[in-house]
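Regression report. Comparing outputs from two consecutive submissions.

Submission 1:
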Amino acid sequence: MKMYLKINNGVIEDVKFKTFGCGSAIASSSMATELIKGKTIEEAMKLTNKAVADALDGLPPVKMHCSILAEQAIKSALLDYSKKHNVYIDGLEDIDFDEDHHHHDLDDH
């Protein structure tokens, strides 16, 4: 899951995503982009996987990791932006992007 952000004056003007996975992963990516478009960087940093799942009227427990991946993809894109533009974004230093969420492992339960 990858997110691409167009940011102008601290506002996310456009968001694109590329997701390879199940329908829940695609839906989570799409919903996450809609939830942050037009928002400030600070507002986007507050987006949680629960907000993504709630906006989708819920996800089955075995698919909740899809919303976690969407949240992480946004924050990863913001981290990339901060590095490329030498902009400090509060809260990114506390995020563990190496957290492992294997789609196939969860589907087997």
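Submission 2:
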Amino acid sequence: MADRPVALNDLKSIQVIGRFCIRMVILCLFAALGGNEFGRTLAALLMLSILFCLAAATLRSEKPFDSALTYWDEAAVYGLFYALIFTMRQVHAV
């Protein structure tokens, strides 16, 4: 079976995944070192990351449903994590 050549979209998607992982590690470190509750601080940092990704995607004129991963996709994943943390904090408060 012949290996298919690596496309530019594949490399771009790998770069986005790497950028996301590094940013999540940094956000978790800042949330852990913050003086407030971890979940609250992480939720605030995730909201800032969502806004940053939306601004970057708009400024770069990226398409929301492109064949490669973009800042739009990254903002969506941050939004999912934000919703998860928000829901867990609401359930825990009850």
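Expected: both submissions complete independently.
Actual: both completed, but the second showed a warning that disappeared on reload.
Relevant detail on submission 2: The mean pLDDT is 88.
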